[in-house]
C-alpha cells in the first residue's frame, strides 16, 4: 500500500511532457521544499556511439531463443558488466532500491528520497535511494550500505538504527531492452532525537517526505 502511495507521489513530480517540476513548485505537491543544491547547473553537452569493448559498465549480447511458434529468433540485450554478465543466469538482482521510513518522537513517519542529475534523460530525477549489489553481497547488506552512503541514515547515533523489513520479489525495469533486475528493500530507521540530521557521504543528500503528504483523504 505504501509503495503504491509513494509511486503516485513520484509520478506527479513530473509533468506529462517529461519535464521536471522546479523545486519551488514541488512544495505544492509534497509539502516539502526540495532544493536543487547546484544540480540545476548540470547539463549534457553531447553523446557519441560507444563500442561494447570500450564500455566500462554496460555490455551488449545476442540471445538465441525459440518463440511460441517454434521459430528460432535472436534478441539484442544490454547487461551490467558489474554483475559479471551472470545476472540473467543466476537470477540474482544486480541492484536494490530502498523504501526507508524514518521514525522519531513527536513527528509523523517520513519517507527518504534522493535527487540527482541523470545524464541519460538530461533531467534532475527524484527517486528512492538505490545502488548496485556487490559480488557476494546480500541485498539486505547492499540496501543498508547504499542508504548510509546516499543519505547518512542507518548509523547510530545521529543516523539512527536501521532495521531491514520486507524484501520484494524481483523487479524488471525494462525487460524489452535489458536483463537488469532489482528488488525493493523496506527499511525502518529509528531515531531518538526528533531533530537529528545525519550527514550523508554523498551530495546532495536526502529529501524527507511526510507520509501524511502521500495520503489523499
Q: Note the total helix count.
A: 4
Oligomer description:
single chain
| Number of self-contained structural domains | 1
- Main beta sheet strand tally, sense and closure: 8 strands, mixed
InterPro entries: NUDIX_hydrolase-like_dom_sf (IPR015797), NUDIX_hydrolase_CS (IPR020084), NUDIX_hydrolase_dom (IPR000086)
Signal peptide: 1-18
Keywords: Hydrolase, Signal
Domain Nudix hydrolase: 93-217
What does this structure look like?
This is Nudix hydrolase domain-containing protein. Residues 93-217 form the Nudix hydrolase domain. It comes from Puccinia sorghi. There is one protein chain. It contains four helices and ten strands, in the order H-H-E-E-H-E-E-E-E-H-E-E-E-E. With 217 residues, the protein is α+β, with helices and mostly antiparallel strands. It has a single domain (2-44, 92-214), classed as Nucleoside Triphosphate Pyrophosphohydrolase, CATH 3.90.79.10. Strand 4 (110-118) and strand 5 form a beta hairpin.
Amino acid at each position: 500500500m505504501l509503495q503504491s502511495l509513494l509511486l503516485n507521489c513520484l509520478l506527479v513530480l513530473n509533468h506529462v511532457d517529461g519535464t521536471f517540476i522546479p523545486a519551488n513548485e514541488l512544495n505544492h505537491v509534497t509539502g516539502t521544499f526540495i532544493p536543487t543544491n547546484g544540480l540545476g547547473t548540470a547539463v549534457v553537452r553531447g553523446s557519441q556511439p560507444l563500442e561494447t569493448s570500450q564500455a566500462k559498465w554496460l555490455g551488449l549480447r545476442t540471445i538465441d531463443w525459440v518463440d511460441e511458434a517454434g521459430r528460432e529468433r535472436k534478441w539484442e540485450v544490454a547487461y551490467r558488466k558489474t554483475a559479471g554478465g551472470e545476472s540473467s543466469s543466476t537470477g540474482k538482482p544486480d541492484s536494490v532500491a530502498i523504501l526507508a521510513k524514518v521514525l522519531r518522537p513527536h513527528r509523523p513517519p517520513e519517507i527518504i528520497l534522493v535527487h540527482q542529475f541523470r545524464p541519460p534523460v538530461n533531467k534532475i530525477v527524484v527517486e528512492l535511494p538505490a545502488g548496485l549489489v556487490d559480488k557476494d553481497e546480500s541485498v539486505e547488506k547492499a540496501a543498508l550500505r547504499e542508504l548510509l552512503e546516499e543519505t547518512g541514515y542507518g548509523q547510530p547515533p545521529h543516523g539512527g538504527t536501521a532495521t531491514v523489513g520486507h524484501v520484494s520479489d524481483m523487479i524488471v525495469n525494462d525487460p524489452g531492452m535489458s536483463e537488469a533486475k532489482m528488488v525493493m528493500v523496506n527499511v525502518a530507521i529509528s531515531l531518538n532525537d526528533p531533530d537529528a540530521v545525519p550527514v550523508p557521504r554523498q551530495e546532495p543528500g536526502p529529501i524527507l517526505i511526510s507520509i501524511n503528504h502521500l495520503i489523499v483523504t
